[in-house]
Amino acid sequence: MLILKFMKCSLFIYLLFFINMHIYAQDILVSQISNVNQLPVTSIHRIFQDKEGYMWYGTVNGLCRDDGYKIDIFRSDIYNKSADRNNLILCIAEDNKNRIWFGTPNGAYILDKNNHYNINQIDIKGLKNRYIHNIEATVDGRIWVSTRTGTFVFDSNDTIPIELDLDTISEPVVLSKLFQDRDGNLWGCFENRGFYLFNKINNKFERIETDCGKIVISDMIQDTKGRLWVSTINKGIALFIPNIKKKKAQIIWQVLPKSANGISTNIVYHLAQDNKLGYLWATTHNDISVFKINEFENRLFQISTKDFLPQDNKMCYEITEDN
User: Are strands 175-180 and 2-8 parallel, antiparallel or unpaired?
Assistant: First the structure.
């Protein structure tokens, strides 16, 4: 099941929807989440599913947990001085202790589900009161937290984090996307810098050479066949074919997504592949685009969404498939 949020431009309202796919009938059904009216606001920035199956939503007015029946809201509390002091939620992750990490413009926080859902700010130099761009968890239990001035890595024991450097860049850059593929390779996409591969021996990101020029990578996913796809906010969608030994990669750019009214865009925010039809879904600044993957040519072919999505313009951001 895919979960997405989109904004109908004429109303300037974000809505949450379920998309149910039935592979045999090739039907795609869209229905609104039943308890969406319990959200504190209608603007949703982040969607995350934890290991217990609960959905978490990042909003401008707090972090929300959806158990399918009701939505609990976690935000600033005048009686809890350690609670989140900025309710805009920018990113969400979960560690191997089932704690929820989330970032705000004023720092990173940990919500402890095992301790009455207490919220505490991460109080270390370089993170406290900083704008948190990204938080990601890797399979080894580490949590990666990125700010404008650097990236910090916490191990599973919450020891003092390591601050990482890049091998070819002296000034700080933003880690816009961290992705671990099924082979365990850890890919870093840095703002305006392209692709890097993490070297576990020297704890550094090493540049992967491409001929794509300056790109701003917004997302990376791996499809069911093991291929890596990236979205950008200046060149659309591409197939990423790395040669790790040579530290090089081939980039195959795809057709630009078109909105329902036929307008192409190179601004793509997030990607997801559904596990029933195998379609690649992309959110853009004005619509939701759906593609079939040509297995032989490694090409995307956009399909019409007129039978299951509203056809007016939609400003979209995040899309995810639940478990």
Answer: unpaired
And the tokens for 163? 């601050």
Q: Residue 164 has which token pair?
A: 């990482």
Question: In terms of Cα–Cα distance, which of 197, 202, 259, 266 is closest to 231?
Answer: 266
Beta bridge partners of 100: 94, 111
Cα 255 to chain centroid, rounded: 22
Q: Cβ of 75: how many Cβ atoms within 10 Å?
A: 17
Closest alpha carbon to 70 in 33, 43, 44: 33
C-beta separation of 168 from 159 below 8 A:
no
The CA-based diameter of the chain, rounded to the nearest angstrom, is 60
The residue to which tokens 């413009």 are assigned:
105
Whether the Cβ atoms of residue 73 and residue 63 lie closer than 8 Å to each other: yes
Q: Looking up tokens 């956009």, which residue turns up?
A: 302
Q: Cα–Cα distance between 310 and 314 in angstroms, integer? A: 8
Q: Supply 73's token pair.
A: 């809201």
| Spatial contact of 239 and 271, defined as CB atoms under 8 Å apart | no
Are the C-beta atoms of 21 and 28 separated by less than 8 Å?
A: yes
Averaged over successive runs of 10 residues, the pLDDT of the chain (323 residues) comes to 43 43 56 80 86 92 92 70 71 95 93 91 86 93 88 80 62 82 93 88 88 89 96 95 94 93 92 90 90 92 86 74 78
User: How far apart (Å, rounded) are the C-alpha atoms in residues 256 and 13?
Assistant: 26
